[in-house]
Amino acid sequence: MVDQAGISALGIAIPDTAIKLSDLAEIRQVDSAKYQIGLECDEMAICTDSIDTVELATKAAQKALSRYHGSIDDIGLIVVATETAKDMSRPFSSWIQEKLNLKGALRSYEVKHACLGGTIAIKQASECVLSGAASGKAALVIATDQSLYTPKSPAEPTQGAGAVAFIIDEHAAIARIEKQSWSWSEPVYDFWRPIGHNYPLVDGPLSLECYKKAALKCFTQMMATQQYSAKALFKHFKAICFHSPFSKMVYKAFAELCTSFDFSENETKAFYHSHVEPFLKFNKKIGNAYTASLWISVAHALHDLKTNEHIAAFSYGSGFGAELLNFTKMSDSEDIGWVEDIQDHIAHRRTYLSQEAYIALRGC
Ligand code: HMG
Asked: Less crowded by CB within 10 Å, the N or C end of the chain?
């Protein structure tokens, strides 16, 4: 048995192309305040012909490997979580292996459970390390997705794209993944994509209710087993990260949790501004990257927090399944350049699609 498992390296990749939600609002003749205030979305990243989810995953993995104190020969497991599957049989991880020239004595597979997939992959990798089954080897876990909805549907402003790669091993140089987590699952049709459909089918209002219920169930279990009071929860965790389909969803779920704790509206807003919102900055610029969305927020928190501070991470995947994980930041001395990568990318390398180019890309 191994004492701990955790994150020892991290990389993020997002497409160079994006669209401003104010432009999308003009295209669809909607008041832009609906997208920017109603949903709290500013921009969304878009995959074009020059980059797809394989390229995103490969870039994120290469960045993580370049920051890792070991080498590619130390990888004994590669897992890719995605909802942008390429094949019903061949795992998505095979495409990444080809790009990385990764082969030999290792296990390789794909995980699917809507946006929860990345979380399941991370849990499985850390449990594999903890059990000793990894025999000292590391796991490369990648969450990669592009979210696209039917053009002109209410879900269109909540698209996005991105990939996050983690190297998980027993050194846990950046963060320890705490062993206990709290899950909840109910079979529901809130968002699903039947075989052969280009876009998901969505019951938007139901999905919001499922997300809020899942958050309440997971946090309530954690508080009961850890014997936290609501106030102690905010003392223990410096960051509370949520899966972010759009930022307003996170606020809605958080506010419902706080109501169940009997917090006043002012207390709710104060805790949201100190513990949640600071780590949603990139999500508002990237949009919903499905399996990667929560991990973009967690990556931000891992960058900002100090050694021994704690992060709670709530994962929701339609269908539906949810899990609440917690992490302890380990060392500040590791290469934590991923946030600068994203900042630089958004500030300098991003190209905005014109309204005409977006219409041409989507066909209407
Ligand atoms: P909609 O039809 O645009 O909803 O769909 P709406 O009419 O209720 O408007 C949205 C908000 O804008 C409302 O705010 C309006 O008041 C406001 P609220 O009252 O709810 O706080 N609004 C305005 N605000 C300012 N100025 C205005 C204005 N007009 C209206 N002029 C919906 C919204 C989210 C349902 C849609 O975008 C959708 O279906 N999205 C996809 C589903 C989704 O993201 N669900 C989230 C939970 S499920 C999940 O997270 C899993 C997922 O990631 C998939 C996976 O797991 O793989 C999606």
From this structure: N
